[in-house]
Amino acid sequence: MADTPWLGDTCSLVEAFRTGERSPVEELEASFAAIDDSELNAFAFVDRERAIDRAKSADVSQAFGGVPTGVKELDQVAGWPNTGASLVFKDEIADHTGTAIERLERDGGSVLVGQTTASEFGGLNVSVTKLHGITGNPWDPTRTAGGSSGGSAAAVAGGLVTIATGGDGGGSIRIPAGFNGLVGMKGTAGRIPRGPHTTVAPLTVVIGCLARSVRDVTRWYDVCAGYDGRDPYSLPKIEGWERDLGSRDLAGLRVAILPDLGGYATVRTEVADLVDEAARHLATAAGMVVVDDVAVDLPTLGYEWAMTNLVTLREELGARWPDCVDDMTMEMGFGLKLAEQVFTLEMAGAAESARTRANEAMAAIYDQVDIVLCATNPNVAYPADVTLNMELGGDGSAVMGIDVKAASNNGALTIPANIVGNPSCSVPVGAVDDLPVGMQIMGRHHSDATLLDLARVVEQERPWALVAPSAPR
Asked: What pTM did the predictor assign?
């Protein structure tokens, strides 16, 4: 029997199943033992009976046949808790399974282990909730795992499971991927369907996975991507993501190297220098042409856009609001109260106008280059207990004043790709203060395959640790 869970990538685990080196049951038991012993608080719920039944009947010829898989607690699985990571819904049970999760289990053969922790309603890029407490980063448990897919990232980097689901509405896959030394791919909006019961607004959310390798992401795409009628914005299926990985000619692509995205964020000097060095190495290795002096004029989206994101939450809460405010994290409760006071048609219009300007500004960047390389996060992971302490400014604006400077700006580098829907992939490129640093590879709509090929070049040129040093061994 295996003493610890598999510490390689998911694809190599499937090969180990197929050769008989490991069995799905013993791998699942190793994962359970590691979860039980872990102090990361990466899992909010574990379904042992269901998982064991699946592992016993696993078909290892399937893409993820027998692989223990974490599911972000904001994703629905019928019969599992459906809390939204909030005390408000702590007793709710899901009555359906998400389309992508269903494909992962039915078509991919995954063994769903349980739910990984997330930030409340996915609203913050931290790993702290009233419902579950603090999730630690396996590289340093006193540091944040990021959010909102922090539990998934901690589980994968911490050696508990090899892969887990994630969602990204403003960086919620890429931010924790960057903080935890993983691959995090935000595909072109609609690449993986979000149904059933798809919530369309605010047109920024995509789903995907937290993975240890680029090929794991391409295999995920092969299983989960493709049109579904219950998500009217989902894209047609493309075959051969894993098969064709690394097959494209990257030479001659024009690239802008902008660690701070042209001044859009304040990036720590050591992080910026590391990303710049890694980006230039990638450009040389892939034969890309570096274009200097690329004009970047992305608009500041402002708190009007943040207020629009609370519209669907207010509808979800229904008659529970405002009596439920004390069950919510301070930031979410405060934000919703503020939105009720200030949200108007004028504000909604301003948010949509900003989105249009962002579309034009992003298109203008890709008139000049094919690829943009920047940091994923402005700094390494900050203290785990830090949250966004929102205060009302003297001019009536929402001011993000927090204990750690890096966190106040966190998300600034990831949000633009969500607003416009561009694909963006975070890959590990090194460490500062012994904590991982991620680099974003951003491209035009529908250039997902090119981004993954570039990520693969990074992986080959400067291999990263697949798990944190603290992972069970």
From this structure: 0.95
